[in-house]
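Quick check before the chapter quiz. The format below is the same one you will see on the exam, so make sure you can read both the input and the output lines.
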Amino acid sequence: MIFEPTPPTLRQLLTGALWLIALCGIGSWFGRLSDSSTNPIFIIASAGCFLAASLAIIRPLYWLLTWPILRFIDRLFIPVGSTDRPPFDLTVAHHCREKERYDDALNEYERLRDLHPKRPEPYDEALDILREHYEDTEELITELSKLRRRHIR
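Here is the expected output.
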């Protein structure tokens, strides 16, 4: 979502609830004191405590109230299937390989593996480059072979 506010953590919710309970209790105590005396300080202190209690719980309430509306707006303007992966294309990697820029070709194969993990070509061609043009890459070759076996069945 574009406008996704971060959801409050459990700690933030519990802290806000504890502040809400504590400040409302103090505010009601000040309210009872203001009933027994005519001092306006107790009324102002009571209102201040209730205001502070509402500020303590405002972030979780903001998220709970705005999240459904903002999600609806996002779904309206950005449909669910509109962010597809780019098409599978090996031309950049092949071009780098032809120009003997093997590091760039390996980077491109890695990008393609991340975007299309079920396709075997990036794994196979990266393994070919590692075997042909690099030395002391046995660990990397075994790791890449394991990745290939894990993703491609």
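If your answer matched, good. The helical segments are 10-36, 40-56, 58-77, 91-98, 102-115, 121-133, 138-151.
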